[in-house]
């Protein structure tokens, strides 16, 4: 997976964070598999406060399994996926985190039963350059 960040100062109090995600030759939408899988893009300020949360997933009702929305990344004609995201924030992003959540929307139901290492995979954790 290729993940890139670019932070741009628009003025003294406004910033733009561009995020690019891509997987070559994956052959299916992402995330896929279980109905509740999610990719979460987060950013934090210089002292660790979360300033951004963006979720990539199919939003499925856990009781009826009806899909309310679908923001998963779709396969292109080359069997690859690519997502480009632009976020505005009033705080300079210092740290960015991209994580793959296995149980996404229903994780609260299994939090104590499932070990942390089986709940998520960290795809990126570092500077938002």
Walkthrough of the structure:
16% of the residues are buried. The longest helix is centred in the last third of the chain and has 4 residues, at 107-110. With 129 residues, this protein is mainly beta. The chain has one helix at 107-110; strands at 2-9, 15-23, 38-44, 50-60, 67-70, 81-89, 95-101, 120-127. It is globular, with a radius of gyration of 16 Å. It contains 1 helix and 8 strands; from the N terminus they run βββββββαβ. The strands form 2 sheets. Strands 5-4-3-7-8 form a 5-stranded antiparallel beta sheet, with no helix packed on it. A 3-stranded antiparallel beta sheet has the order 1-2-6, with no helix packed on it. The protein has one domain (2-127): Immunoglobulin-like (Sandwich), CATH 2.60.40.
Distance between the termini: 17 Å
Named at the architecture level, the CATH assignment is Sandwich
CATH class: Mainly Beta
Computed over alpha carbons, the radius of gyration is 16 Å
Domain module count: 1
The succession of helices and strands, N to C, reads EEEEEEEHE
Helix content: under 10%
Stated plainly, the CATH topology is called Immunoglobulin-like
Task: Count up the helices.
Answer: 1
Report the uncertain regions.
Answer: none
Number of strands: 8
How would you describe the shape? globular
Tell me about the largest β-sheet: 5 strands, antiparallel
| Lateral strand order in the biggest sheet | 5-4-3-7-8
